[in-house]
Write a structure and sequence with these properties.
single chain; alpha+beta; five-stranded antiparallel β-sheet; 36 helices
């Protein structure tokens, strides 16, 4: 029936378990006629169901479709369908694949048989309504009753051409009708006769008769009961795919028996195929060898006490802050040059890694992290270099927990990915640290989802990394056997019964080179596979498809999707997951592989109750975790995993009853919105919605509050030793650390930092303006042990000789009150290259510049000091450089942003209005969308400030207002709008007058008036 209000085509409600026919959450098990087109079904959906579609597929919003017909047309666009298929979980993809090889339209019972087999596996049968509802919500499936239609674009994407050797991931070949297209009528009649069927008068009925035979289980059982054993073995090798095989010019008797009865059909010279109907009979009706209705279970690798996890994470968090500080402190005086193509050279990267006492891939991560946090940028000078920004001066003065919060907030939202450094872009150009081309839009989503899965474990639980990868692959529809020993696709390599790769369990490749930071593992992995093996889930090499049986038979050189390696996009997601686990450990978000308490709060989740776990007196591995954190700037980097639940990915709230999305009345796991929001459950149907920078910063601040008590307090003392070393038993206060860093050289880092005093380091302190008395007083004040006599002698000896020689600019000269010392220099053979000559008893002239002369004299063992034109000693300190104020790099989003509820509601109103206009329907009187008559008094007028405030208030409340605006042609107009967003000088609103979403420049709006007519 048709409603008079909006002209929508409505389908009568059903009494079956599916509820209303064609509803987004319906399984389609009713018996009604159902809609005739996708557009007709969209018209039957409620506003909430349309909003759910647009939330799940935000690309349909750009631009806003004019009516529901345009929306339906856009929903079957090839690029849009391909994008939404990539976002489905594995079971939903398998359901779509089954529909792609099923008749169109397909009944629900047929689909259930394809998915659960003729024995109707209970788990599959229970989850199938959810998968159907997921496809229907996303407008990939439509139709009611027993007429389910997969949209044609999805069918084409999931089912390659029937005439080619490529096959879908189901491993099923073409139907009898498709495989016999072009076959001569006489040949068809011969097949019928040999198969024991009566001949027909034309090819169409012959194909129908053969199809009926292959779909009749009793008659097929009788036919196969007559087959020779060799023929059955050939069918066994083809049944799960690939369905194509190559035969010699004179095939053996087993193959001839199959071909003459149509159980194998020729598709090209020397090639035969197993018809789809025959394969389904041999499979027991199943479309997939392994159906995956639930996420793979997660295996816990180890369990620790939450206290030890938090202690390990806090220690690594403190190390992360110190490492970034050391990096920026090094670069503020000697920042690397910017390459012509952007980025840092390999030589500068090696130098930085050595200064940080870490490997190059880990140094890349710290550099990119500082850049993402806005602490590092290029200075833009003629000799362009990377140096700290002014924000670094603010950051370094804050408490350690606040500095950590800044770093981890930048990491969560950053799309620049350190792991791809060392690889190449699509044009073959090398990817360098701080260079272009490092953005990977999927990174924030994968980080967030990976940490969510860790949060789903009990406190202190560290899962297996391959479990995380398996779970995330299931959520993105990747077959469990992809990249490893494929499940469900065999390749004949020997005799008639020899099959490889036909195991029933998900395969795994060894290795995991991309997961490690050490060596070259933190990159694209192209240079290290030979040494370390392929990444987890990727095959080392494709198996050779060769070999034949005694019957002269071998399979064609193709395989269905499960037997292939990971695609480039899937491989990137795998590596991003591995990098996330590693980086979370480096940053102290996780400790010993388990998510810390402050890591949970960082995700916006409440801190777990660890009191019960902590009373056990230790962790499962027998350690307290206090020594799990190294102080070398690299961290322990234990890999982690995911939660143990088996929730399913929908957020649609549908279970076996097929209810409306979001109702939460289903019985399947993860069906309600609350369940989908819990850690460890797949994301909701709308996809990943990134948090705003303010939300991330607020969560990081709360996490920093929990982290603060776990961090060590800075110390104000060191321990001086007789071997000219000083030991800092913990982190030092900043003034002490800075002064000690000038006076001594860092010899080693760890739980305690060891400084060594040398003549050069003492001279460095004297060059910086300190006197010997200053140094003695400094050491006496900050040492808990007496100042050793050798150290006092060293300071006095260097100070006594320091500055006796003065170097100035002539080109340069050397001045000394001790003429005997000058004579010693002139007599030294090492001074021949200095081109010295005596000008006066106490003055030597040189042909070198002062800086070079100073360095040469110091190499000769003297302690000269630079002199100014006035004769004073020049105090030399390294020049500190800063950039002009810079903003951090903005993350590059993946696809269109997820719309908010206000924009969705306005869009649905606009689409409904456009549909009414397209169908010629009129807006009834009293409709809320009908504009009120303009109030008397002409256009509303008001000050710009009042106008802006009124529009912002209306956007917050969703209230309609009248505006006066001036068009681009200069004409004045009056519109009734419901503002959705006011930003960047533009007002985005639903225009009740035009019944569509429009954008108005703020400077063209003259004023705002309430619907009653009051001007604001």
């Amino acid at each position: 029936m048709t409603t008079e209000r909006n002209g929508e085509a409505r389908v009568p409600a059903e009494t079956g378990p599916a509820g209303r026919t064609g509803a987004a959450g319906s399984t389609g098990r009713g018996t009604g006629p159902g809609p005739r087109t996708l557009a007709e079904e969209l018209r039957s959906r409620t506003d909430g169901e349309l909003a759910e579609l647009l939330r799940a597929r935000p690309d349909l919003l750009s631009p806003v479709p004019g009516d529901l017909t345009q929306l339906a047309t856009r929903a079957v666009n090839r690029a849009s369908v391909a994008r939404v298929l990539e976002q489905l979980d594995r079971f939903a993809v398998q359901t779509a694949e089954a529909l792609a090889v099923a008749p169109d339209p397909c009944s629900y019972d047929t689909l259930l048989t394809l998915m659960a087999g003729e024995d109707r596996e209970e788990r599959v049968a229970a989850e199938l309504p959810r998968a159907v509802a997921t496809l229907r919500t996303r407008a990939l499936l439509w139709g009611g009753g027993d007429r389910l239609h997969l949209v044609r674009t999805a069918r084409e994407l999931l089912t390659p051409a029937a005439t080619g050797p490529a096959v879908p991931s189901t491993g099923l070949g073409p139907t009898v009708s498709e495989a016999t297209a072009g076959m001569s009528p006489g040949r068809l009649q011969q097949i019928l006769t040999t198969a024991g069927l009566p001949t027909t008068h034309d090819s169409v009925t012959a194909v129908e008769s053969l199809t009926a035979l292959f779909t009749d289980r009793e008659r097929m059982a009788e036919l196969l009961g007559e087959a020779p054993p060799e023929a059955l073995r050939v069918l066994d090798r083809l049944v799960w795919g690939p369905p194509y095989g190559q035969v010699p010019a004179e095939p053996g008797p087993a193959v001839r028996w199959l071909v003459t009865r149509g159980l194998l059909l020729p598709t090209a010279p020397g090639t035969v195929v197993l018809p789809r109907e025959v394969a389904l009979h041999l499979r027991g009706g199943r479309a997939h060898r392994i159906t995956e209705p639930l996420p793979p279970p997660v295996e816990t690798a180890a369990e620790y006490s939450p206290r030890s996890v938090d202690a390990a994470a806090a220690g690594q968090a403190f190390t992360a802050v110190g490492t970034v500080d050391d990096l920026l402190h090094t670069w503020e005086t000697a920042g690397p040059s910017v390459l012509r193509a952007g980025g840092v050279s390999v030589r500068d990267l090696k130098r930085t890694a050595a200064a940080l006492d870490t490997d190059e891939p880990t140094a890349v991560f710290w550099i990119e992290l500082a850049f993402a946090a806005g602490l590092l940028a290029s200075d833009g000078a003629t000799d362009e270099r990377f140096v700290p920004t002014p924000e670094y001066d603010v950051w370094r003065t804050g408490p350690a927990q606040e500095r950590w919060a800044t770093l981890v907030s930048a990491w969560l939202a950053a799309t620049r990915t350190a792991g791809v450094v060392g690889g190449h872009d699509a044009k073959g150009r090398a990817l360098t640290v701080l260079g272009p081309g490092l953005d990977r839009s999927q990174a924030p989503e994968i980080r967030h989802r990976t940490l969510e899965l860790l949060a789903g474990l009990p406190p202190g639980g560290a899962p297996r990394p391959d479990s995380v990868l398996a779970r995330l692959r299931w959520e993105r529809g990747v077959p469990s056997g992809a990249g490893g020993g494929a499940a469900g696709a065999g390749t004949v390599t020997g005799g008639p019964g020899a099959v490889t790769g036909a195991g029933t369990g998900p395969g795994r490749a060894g290795g995991g080179a991309g997961a490690a930071y050490g060596g070259s593992g933190y990159g694209d992995g192209s240079r290290v596979q030979a040494a370390h093996g392929p990444p987890a889930g990727r095959p080392a090499a494709a198996p050779r498809r060769a070999g034949g049986g005694a019957d002269g038979w071998r399979t064609a050189g193709t395989a269905p999707v499960p037997a292939r390696g990971l695609s480039s996009a899937e491989e990137l997601r795998t590596r991003l997951t591995e990098w996330t686990l590693r980086e979370a450990e480096l940053l102290g978000v996780t400790g010993r592989g388990a998510l810390s308490t402050h890591g949970r709060v960082l995700l916006g989740l409440p801190a777990a109750d660890t009191s019960a776990a902590d009373t056990s007196g230790g962790d499962a591995s027998g350690g307290d975790g206090a020594d799990a954190v190294g102080g070398d700037g690299r961290g322990t980097g234990s890999d982690t995993g995911t939660g143990t639940d088996t929730g399913s990915d929908t957020g649609t709230g549908t279970g076996t009853g097929g209810t409306v999305p979001g109702s939460g009345s289903g019985t399947g796991p993860g069906t309600s919105a609350a369940a989908a929001a819990r850690p460890g459950h797949p994301p909701a149907s709308g996809g990943f919605s990134p948090r705003s920078p303010a939300e991330i910063a607020a969560a990081a601040a709360r996490a920093a509050g929990l982290l603060a008590p776990l961090l060590p307090e800075p110390l104000d003392h060191v321990l001086l030793q007789a071997d000219l070393t000083a030991v800092a038993p913990g982190p030092l206060e900043r003034p002490l650390a800075e002064t000690l860093g000038v006076l001594a050289d860092v010899e080693s880092k760890g739980g305690a930092t060891v400084y060594r005093f040398t003549p050069d380091s003492v001279r460095r302190a004297l060059d910086a303006g300190r006197t010997a008395d200053d140094l003695h007083a400094f050491l006496a004040e900050h040492s808990r042990t007496p100042v050793p006599q050798p150290l006092s002698y060293l300071i006095d000896d260097v100070a006594r000789r320091h500055g006796h020689l003065r170097v100035g600019a002539a080109s340069s000269y050397v001045r000394c009150e001790d003429d005997g010392l000058l004579a010693e220099i002139l007599a030294d053979k090492r001074s021949e290259g200095l081109r010295l000559r005596r000008l006066a008893p106490t003055v030597l002239a040189a042909g070198l510049d002062p800086a070079t002369l100073l360095a040469k004299l110091r190499e000769m063992g003297f302690a000269p000091a630079a002199e100014s034109a006035e004769g004073d000693v020049v105090i030399t300190r390294p020049g500190v450089h800063r950039t002009a104020p810079r903003t951090p790099p903005a993350p590059v989003p993946e696809g269109p942003p997820v719309p908010d509820d206000t924009l969705l509601a306005a869009t649905v109103r606009a689409v409904r209005a456009g549909d009414r206009a397209a169908s010629g329907g009129a807006v009834p009187a009293g409709d809320a969308t009908a504009p009120e008559p303009p109030a008397p008094g002409g256009l509303p007028h008001g000050s710009p400030g009042d106008t802006l405030a009124a529009l912002q208030a209306a956007a917050l409340t969703g209230s309609p207002v009248w505006i006066g605006c001036v068009t681009a042609e200069g004409t004045a107009d009056r519109r009734l709008i419901a503002p959705v967003r006011v930003e960047s000088g533009l007002v985005t609103a639903y225009d009740h007058t035009a019944e569509e979403i429009r954008t108005y420049p703020l400077h063209r709006i003259t004023g705002v008036a309430e619907p009653s007519g009051e001007t604001r």
